[in-house]
Amino acid sequence: MSAILETVGVNKTFGAVTAARDINVSVAKHEIVGIIGANGAGKTTFVNMVTGWLPPSTGRIRFDGRDITGLAPRKITRLGICRSFQVAQVFMTATVFDNLMIALGIADAHGLGVLLPLRVRAREERADAILRRYQMQDYRDQPASTLPQGIRKLLDIAMAMVAQPKVLLLDEPTSGISVEEKFPLMDIVMGALKEEGVTVLFVEHDMEIVSRYVSRVLAFYQGEIICDAPPAEALADPKVKEFVIGDDLHNQTLLQAGALQDGAQEVSDARG
Amino acid sequence: MALTSDRTTLGLTVGFVAVALLGVFVLPDWLLNQILVAFSRALAVVGLLVLWRTGLVSFGHALYFGLGAYTVALLGRNYGIGEVLVTLPAATLASALVGFLLGFIVRRYREIFFAMLNLAFSMVLFGILVKTEALGSTDGFNVEQPTLLGIGTDDAAVKLTALFLGVCAIGWLTAVLVHRYLGSILGSLTTAVRDNEIRVEYLGYSAAEAIHGKYVMSAALTGLGGGFMAISLGQVDPESMVNWTVSGELVFVTILSGPGSVAAPFIGSLIFELLRTYAFELVPYAWQLIVGGTLLLIIFFLPGGVWSVLSRLAGRRGVEP
Amino acid sequence: MNLLLTILVEGLGYASYLFIVSLGLTVIFGVLKILNVAHGAFYAWGAYLCAFLIGEFSTMGVSDLGTMVAIPIAALIVGLILGSAIERTIIKNLYGRDEVLIVLATFGLFLVLEDVILLVFGVDPYFAYQPTYAMPGVQIGGIHQDGYKLSMIVVSLVIGLISWAVLNRTHWGKLVTAIIYDSELAVAMGINVPRVFYTVFVAGAVLGALGGAYIAPTISVAPGFGVEVIVLSFAVVVIGGLGSIPGAAIGALLVGMLRAYAVLQWPEIELFVVYAVMAAVLIFRPEGLFAPAKARKI
Amino acid sequence: MTNRTMIGAIGVSVAAALAAAAPALAKDAVSIAVPAFLSGPAAGPFGVPARNGAEMVIDAINAGKLPAPYDSKGFAGATVNVEFVDESGGNTKQVAEYRNLIQKRNVDAVIGYISSGSCAALAPVVEELKTLTVFAVCGTPRVFEDGERQYIFRTMSHATADNVAAAHYIKDMFPAVKSYTGINQNYAWGQDSWRDFELSMKVLMPDAAQSDKVQFPKIFAGQYGSEISALSLDAAELVHSSFWDGDLEGFIFQATPRGLFKQKKVILTVGGTAAYRLGKKMPDGVILGARGPYGILVRDRKTALNEWFIKTYFDRYGTYPSGPAYQYAQAVLATKIAYDKAAAAAGGFPTQDQVIASFKGMEFESFSTTVKLALAGGHQAITENVYGITKWNADDAEPGVTDVKFYPAECVMPPDGVNSVDWITKGMPGAKC
Fold first, then answer.
1. C188 inside 8 A of chain A by CB
2. One MF term from GO for this chain (chain B) (predicted)?
3. ipTM metric
4. How many contacts (CB atoms, under 8 Å) link B and C?
């Protein structure tokens, strides 16, 4: 199988802190990969580097045989790698439908095409089709700011998928979502993604979810990949057990809640 | 898309034609003059409105207003060119060009820093103008009599009517084009950029480039407005064209108008002009008090500006404005 | 040599009152996150009240030097009364709103306060020259400098030191520093944030008014003169770094020296040199030269 | 009132509107607007006395109480309704306001304007709107030198007279002066004043050297510490300034403790207003002008008109009239005379064109001097000019002047048709001193 996404000797340091150390990963087409690790292990840094938010300090990233190291996020997006966020990044004042329309519009637009009208029949029909695929019809005309957390994350993912990417990175799709909602949400998402035949990498804390949906697990610890194996094998790995999962589930949930804010802060720090 | 399929375009056309007819057949000269000045400013405010929808407020757009005004005035003074088909495009282009260059810098900033950086740039132009005798320094100078296709007039009433129709035509064109721009994919990136730049970036479009484009557009429109203002008033000077208080005025009219529609700046600007005329006549020392008070009231109680009131009124009668 | 000395003295004199005004502005921004345009109105009110009081005291028979007591009185009255009233009625309702909207609201407030000055004090300029006439002058760099300007340099130095001491050596100052650093954390620590906000705003207003009151005897106090200072002190705090006290000092010195140099040596650039520097600083160091450290959450 | 009909047509965005004036009928009232600085730094020293002067004379005209030969009532018999408007806010605002005065408030004539900036900006607009406008104070020669004016009159000399006379006075009184510098506001008034003074000095005192660091602070800056330092550092012995408004007073207050008036000779071409307002705080030994024979410089001129003016003004406002009071009064008086003359010629209430015709080239006795509308086709007045030196009169506790010298109009103003800069540069040919 040919690799669609490949990182070669990627390192990332922030001053004295090493956020990624010698990351070598090769992901094949249609693979579904789970990325696990404690907070600060380097998962989001990995996602940020692949999607162009942060350039690696050293090393190369290749996509579909092409070197994308250091490209801007929008270039990488255009090439076919999209992502979702720990904290859903949607247009808060716009309705769900308009969020999708804008996303579709941008995906459609090339060059001066950006000056064409946004609201055309065909695009509206596509937006409605997406709404159905992600089962968000009931929220169609609701502003994103009023959505329940789960729906907002769903919208975030749907928007990432609008451009029909070849690779999708999901950053903690279930963080901040109640335990009862997690599986229904993931069922919708994974169902839709399967339909589109996209390669998926997702960061996840919940090992139940990981073991249910992924075919392969990457475990991060202190910026390094300490395990790269199918889920059953990975979750049984003593190092993974010690450094990633921990033994206190309650503690883990708390951490996840904290991760929410931290993630937002990281993104805004990166912006500033 | 056919022009008529768009209700706003239709509404704008009806509105501007109505104003033009009223102006030519009914309204007294002084009011025509007020509309002329108000619409000139409104052109600039439309530019600010685009920025505001993007979540950006500039405290320095007097830079472009002044550039436009001085371009028109200097073309007349130094080259004897009064042809509006030359001076107004030149004003627009000069502002757009400066906006394009400064855009590379300002597009990196948001919020207060965006506002203040623009202020700094505009104050540099102000300082240069005030201190340069060749550019008229504090006094500024008179603007050449305008001509259209080489035709000019000494008759004040004819000139006024012609300018008035001109500003109505350009106002209509600007409003329609900007409205259609806002309805385009790029136009949808106004509120989108304001809401979430990260998402815009990850949808494959550069928020910075989108902002740069809007900035150039606002600069061009503000330059056009300034150019028209110079012709309307027949005089330019730094205090009333370039000082930071002018930027403040533009922002004030933007807030007063509300972000709701491209028609709002024209209405808001006219209200502002009439308010000012009567305030100077009736309560000469309370003008700033009125402006300041209005600003506070709008910020606290009417964030949608005048437009929100109008559309609410119209909505009650079941008519879409 | 004489020229250099003169630039130094002029620049320091100019910097000293700008520093006092900017200090108020920057502290208010640092703590409340409000870029307060109405600060210019405090300055103008301070100047008007001071000029008015000096005139009154003088007619009451107070000696020219003695009229200087009007300066702190005016600053305190304006800061404590006007500052409190405005914090309680308007500013309080702005906390947490969009920064740019706050600037606009305070701009509205500024315009209102400027016109109220006209209603209260009339349209005629005020002159309160008594203190400058009373203070003995000094020969510096071959020219006669008035003692009043030198006193202003000393006073601003003292105020700078006092604010440094208050912020670094008192419990109160530590609370304020904590809020500047991270206001959410401050809430979590149980600091009474609204009270700190109120106090800081009033203190800032007193400083703004003090700047105006101190400059009043050296200028014609006329309508609209708060306009220029507000843009200038914006430049000072932006150059120095919004919210930073050493930044305000450096910014004021830079602006003062630049302006003195421009007037004496290169008058053509006088009016915009400050803004050109401000633009340059923003371009290369958007946060200003001395941006206060921000809490970094990872 | 004018009856306006508008015929409009939109086709290719062309429209025409014609104004037809109603036939001249006897009128009960003439409405005039009098703009002057009523707020800001220029209000106290200039706007208020200007307004007072105009108000007092208009009241006297309406009551028929001016001294003979001006004791007829009103303008050509019509009562004068006056509206005072504020001149502050910048040139462009003045242009907009002027349009409102004419088009919205329908005034018959505008009499006033203090700032040269206002007048330079308004000149083309006045011509466009075709309404009689009498500039009362503003001094820039550019008003008539930049174009031919039909509807504008100026009833006092322009800045050239002040500065030529200043140079004459320096030559007469201080022939030993070796070098000079200046501090002037950076707008038409200050720039023109300095230019005329500098050129006149080159002609009259060619040996005196000019400083290379002449100060041009912004008008209404209010703060001159650095400029005063620059002047102090300058080796020049003489400082020329055309400061007027609050800037002048601020400058004097700030320069006194700095010892500038002791260190240098200072000539203030518009210093007259400050003498009364500053009283004892006005330093002695300052060379003072009042833009002509007005205010403190003609306190002792014992003509019936002048004595009436000073007494009536003092009784009503509690101070002596300064320059602007005289100058506004003079503009109002000139307009009255033009109306009366035109009415006498037309045998009824005159049309605007008739008033303008009689205004042109008029010569009349004003309150303190003789005014001749001799230049710019009879639109620009010339009068004598005068300088003196301040001296506090301790006996009466009043400001006073010594060494007063008058210069005839033909000595300090260029002949008709000659641009003032050209005239001075060529060595003031034809000057009768």
1. no
2. branched-chain amino acid transmembrane transporter activity
3. 0.83
4. 117
